[in-house]
Design goal:
This protein is of the alpha+beta class. The chain is built from nine helices and 13 strands. It folds into three domains: 42-62 and 157-234, FAD/NAD(P)-binding domain; 66-153, D-Amino Acid Oxidase, Chain A, domain 2 (2-Layer Sandwich), CATH 3.30.9.40; 240-292, no CATH class. The strands form four sheets. Strands 4, 5, 6, 7, 8 and 9 form a six-stranded antiparallel sheet that branches. It has a three-stranded antiparallel sheet with strand order 3-10-13, with no helix packed on it. It has a two-stranded antiparallel sheet with strand order 1-2. The two termini are 34 Å apart.
Length: 293
Amino acid sequence: MAPRRLPDRRVEDPPWIAGDSEDPGDPGRVRGPPAVPARLVVAADGRRSRLAGLLGNEAESRPNERAALFGYFRGIPAPADNRSVFVMNDRDLACSYPLVDGRTELVLFAEKSRVEGWRGADGRMQEFLKYFDGLPDAPPVTDAVPEGPLLGYGDYPSLIRRPVAGSVPFVGDAALSLDAMSGVGCGFALLSAQLLAHAFAGRALDAEGVRDGLDDYRQRFEKTVLPHAEGICGDSLVDKDEATRQRMFETICGNPELSQKYLALTGRMVLPAEFQRAFMRGLMARGSGAARK
């Protein structure tokens, strides 16, 4: 499936960001230091990008049915080899990360409905540790001592913006900010910056060079990043039934080549379409093997 292209709306933006303006309604000026001329301005100002607001690059909001909670603790024994532990529990993912000096980070990505009733700081902490205490293969938390309050969010929709607005490219969370369980925030920030650098490599920053570089970056972003974003947004709806999920992971785990492809997919080293083709081959091979038996 070809990646869906975001609606393109070109705006004639000045290729510079200026300081205080006499006209507070001037969209080409940002309050701050004195005016600084620039041949290319990059929007890398995060999920709540102010430049996006100034340039009319509105975010497309996608629902995310997961909440996320995390905290730091002492008193949790580290697993053998100091390994991190990930436990899939129905549609949730619980993570334990052993850190230095006897500290452990616990992270829970759970359906919103599961944590909505965890009210108050003390009650939320008690329910959080109770959840981990009931998980098989998770490290024991009986003696866990919190180092601070739980952090996280209960509602965090995924946001996707056009990678280019007028003459300004967007990178990192300013371009897209997705369900945190996917673990792509820093990775996509570096990837989008790399795509932008490659798009402008060897180009002069004159009007023609900037225009061509922006078109190149837009195409690279839509081909490389958007397919992953679509998959992540779909997964954050957590609507797979248990039987479907079980069948998917049985197929992946029963095929070494497919397992490597899945690791590459979660590491964002292959495009979703490549994994999907391999997965369909794995399903067919598994089905023909069962028929022979």
